[in-house]
Amino acid sequence: MKVLQATLKEFCDELVKTKTEVAQVRLKNAEDKERLLGDMQVMATTLVQSREQMKAAKETELELRRRLAEYDEKFAGLQKTLQETNTQYEGFKGGMDTVRYTSNQIHHKFTACTDFLF
Predict the structure, then answer these.
(1) How far apart are CA 102 and CA 89, in angstroms?
(2) The pLDDT of residue 117
(3) First-to-last CA distance in the chain?
């Protein structure tokens, strides 16, 4: 009977030891699971933030493209106005050259007539 009690005690000790090991493994698994869930939550938060940043960047890009198109249109208008101004200036300059040439001819004729009369 003492042998049976000793064997029973050994089995009880082994059972306690095994239950303790199982509990430690379960605790470690639970800690690992909690750590992984925390990591997943951090990753999910980072993903949401990244998506928001991407959305903001896309909106900024669209706004910049719109403004670029607007400035391009204004620049084209400015170039057209400048070309028209240059054309008008060339016409004015040509007219002034003609007036100066005619004025010089009249001046020479008047000087020649004045010299002849006096």
Answers:
(1) 20
(2) 65
(3) 169
Beta strands in 6-116 (DSSP E): none
CA distances 99 to 3, 106, 107, 109, Å, are 140, 10, 12, 15
Ordered mean pLDDT values, 10 residues apiece, the chain (118 residues): 83 92 96 96 98 98 98 97 96 94 89 70
State how far the Cα of 80 lies from the Cα of 90, in Å rounded to an integer. 15
CA angle, residues 24, 30, 32, in degrees to nearest 5: 100
Structure tokens given for 53: 């940043």
Give the pLDDT confidence score for residue 116 in this predicted structure: 67
Supply the pTM of this predicted model.
0.54
Q: Both tokens of residue 24? A: 């430690």
